[in-house]
């Protein structure tokens, strides 16, 4: 059975690139344009094995989204990767304290991204 990844980014082109990489590796992909849309999809029954989210988005940013996900019983332990242009340590710490599992800096390298995903996805 293939694993599902929820990709959250307000940039359509970035979502397309991530989705292309993930589908090429055999993953199912659900897309959301911001944190609010992602929460709606999770509440609507989406059951991703992993969430990849941007940090800076309108309506609800990545840190707020991670806190929301960690507050949902069904998704409390779902791995969450931040995909962002931010590489500052304070932002990383903020992401980690919110519950982020890992961090991928944009522009991402598809092979590196898949390696990180393999590390955080169980089985």
TrEMBL record:
CDD domains: REC_CheY4-like
Claim: Transmembrane helix is one of the keywords in the record: no
Coiled coil: none
Keywords, in A-Z order: Phosphoprotein
PROSITE patterns the record matches: RESPONSE_REGULATORY
Positions of post-translational 4-aspartylphosphate modification: 54
InterPro entries from the UniProt entry: Bact_response_regulator (IPR050595), CheY-like_superfamily (IPR011006), Sig_transdc_resp-reg_receiver (IPR001789)
Domain Response regulatory intervals: 4-121
Protein name per the record: Response regulator
